[in-house]
């Protein structure tokens, strides 16, 4: 009798399992059918797997090649591509202008942005302020808090000279050869923390905070792919718990470490305010002014701190590396930049803001670098508000997300002739095609464009000026070039500077041989 009951239970379990599997298969079949043929975006072409699932995009984020996948999809499917069940990517100037217009019926939703701000606490930085009027008000405040052009120049020029000294000292210990990656990162973080908090982390001289760049890289990688996942509440709780450190979850732990660092920078700046007030000194840095104004909650200040440290350092670090790389691949461009820089000043110790502004070819080299290697290369999503938005003749309903692939747009042959070639001269030709300038968006476009663009340009120009003025450069073969050549993807040239797209671009080492100029 027991055997019969056991056998009956066994058969019943099998039937339940089979029914469950069939039901799940039917659900998947229905979901796939809906997304392929009945979804509001069903008529938009795109890679098959990305039309039915968001997992391929998450994998691309994890691998760091989402920008490459986007440009490949655009080449195959056209100017509008479905890159997720509910997501579109465009590669046209008209799409960029429509999506980032002040009146555009879009906002920053949870996709991609859901974990970027205050972590488990949910603070809201200026980038995540959804209401346009509130964002505009915060942006006006932030613009007023930015240091003057003259003030930022003196801060940055001093740090740029320290940067070149550190580079030379490091090269002296290694037979004249240096990996510029580390020094560029230290310089970039020292610049942004001085501008933002009135005191640098002093990474150029001391090792105390030199763990931060790699910590931020780990945090960016995790936040990038998890931001496109559907389990935001789970990840928020995870970030607010002690489990990541207990379980040895390196990437999540480094998110927490970075958020703690951003908080400590705000707290430390607030503590210094008392001494400055007693001495009658007015703050000249961004957060000193914000804290004095007492306009935002402490949690929102921490969110802004997290944003500014990361966003303020990425373009500087990456563009210095990439410009040196392209100069190594194009010695004629390096020769022209060197001649312009060395003829601009008799003494590099006493240059002015006007000196840097006069270096038109150097600026063209920097712009061409950011065209080929933008700090944020893939599409930055916006969610459609109630109603819809029409982009390039495509009606996109509420709840869908869309964006413009900067990497693909910057290589649009209809706007940039010979789009994969490093040609700084294109920015100096007159008359210049206005579409080139309008499509150029390394700092994004519209009312939510990067407020620190001027500071970033100053920092990049000053660093490259002092290196080239003092030293002759020989750029060695880099792992970036080898990786790009081995991938051979996207139809791009083998001498392109390869980056990993993890929210912001990260590059492998770049070795440069230095010697004092003749």
From TrEMBL:
One of its GO terms (molecular function) is oxidoreductase activity, acting on paired donors, with incorporation or reduction of molecular oxygen. The keyword Repressor does not apply. The keyword Metal-binding applies. It comes from the Eukaryota. Heme binds at residue 450. The chain crosses the membrane at residues 12-32. Its cofactor is heme. Keywords: Heme, Iron, Membrane, Metal-binding, Monooxygenase, Oxidoreductase, Transmembrane, Transmembrane helix. It holds the Pfam family p450. Belongs to the cytochrome P450 family. This is Cytochrome P450. It comes from Truncatella angustata.
């Amino acid at each position: 009798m027991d055997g019969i009951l056991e056998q009956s239970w066994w058969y019943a379990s099998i039937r339940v399992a089979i029914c469950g599997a069939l039901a799940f298969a039917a659900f998947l079949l229905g979901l796939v059918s809906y997304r392929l043929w009945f979804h509001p975006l069903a008529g938009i072409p795109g890679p098959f797997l990305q039309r039915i699932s968001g997992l391929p995009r998450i994998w691309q984020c994890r691998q760091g090649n989402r920008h490459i996948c986007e440009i490949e999809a655009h080449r195959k499917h056209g100017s509008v591509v479905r890159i997720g069940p509910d997501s579109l990517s465009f590669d046209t100037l008209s799409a960029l202008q429509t999506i980032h217009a002040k009146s555009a019926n879009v906002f920053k939703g949870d996709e991609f942005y859901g974990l970027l701000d205050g972590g488990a606490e949910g603070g809201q930085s200026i980038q995540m302020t959804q209401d346009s009027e509130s964002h505009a008000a915060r942006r006006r405040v932030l613009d007023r808090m930015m240091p003057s052009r003259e003030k930022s120049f003196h801060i940055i020029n001093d740090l740029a000279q320290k940067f070149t000294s550190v580079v030379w000292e490091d090269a002296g210990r290694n037979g004249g050869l240096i990996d510029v990656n580390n020094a560029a990162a230290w310089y970039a973080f020292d610049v942004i923390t001085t501008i933002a908090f009135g005191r640098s982390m002093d990474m150029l001289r001391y090792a105390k905070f030199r763990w931060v760049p790699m910590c931020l890289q780990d945090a960016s990688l995790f936040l990038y792919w998890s931001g496109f996942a559907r389990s935001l509440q789970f990840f928020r709780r995870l970030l607010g718990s002690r489990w990541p450190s207990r379980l040895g979850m390196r990437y999540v732990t480094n998110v927490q470490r970075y958020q703690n660092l951003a908080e400590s920078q705000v707290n430390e700046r607030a503590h210094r305010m008392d001494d400055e007030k007693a001495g009658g000194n007015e703050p000249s840095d961004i957060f000193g002014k914000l804290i004095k104004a007492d306009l935002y909650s402490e949690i929102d200040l921490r969110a802004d701190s997290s944003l500014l440290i990361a966003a303020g350092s990425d373009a500087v670090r990456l563009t210095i590396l990439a410009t040196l790389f392209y100069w190594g691949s194009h010695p004629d461009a390096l020769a022209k930049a060197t001649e312009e820089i060395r003829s601009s000043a008799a003494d590099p110790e006493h240059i002015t803001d006007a000196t840097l502004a006069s270096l038109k070819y150097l600026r063209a080299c920097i712009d061409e670098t950011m065209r080929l290697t933008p700090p944020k290369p893939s599409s930055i999503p916006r969610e459609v508000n109630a109603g819809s938005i029409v982009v390039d003749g495509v009606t996109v309903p509420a709840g869908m997300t869309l964006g413009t692939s900067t990497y693909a747009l910057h290589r649009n042959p209809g706007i940039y002739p010979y789009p994969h070639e490093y040609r700084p001269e294109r920015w100096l030709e007159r008359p210049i095609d206005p579409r080139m300038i309008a499509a150029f968006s390394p700092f994004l476009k519209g009312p939510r464009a990067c407020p620190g663009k001027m500071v970033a340009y100053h920092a990049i120009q000053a660093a490259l000026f002092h290196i080239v003025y003092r030293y002759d450069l020989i750029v060695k073969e880099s792992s970036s070039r080898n990786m790009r050549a081995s991938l051979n993807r996207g139809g791009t040239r083998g001498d392109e500077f390869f980056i990993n797209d993890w929210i912001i671009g990260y590059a492998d080492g770049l070795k440069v041989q230095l010697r004092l100029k003749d």
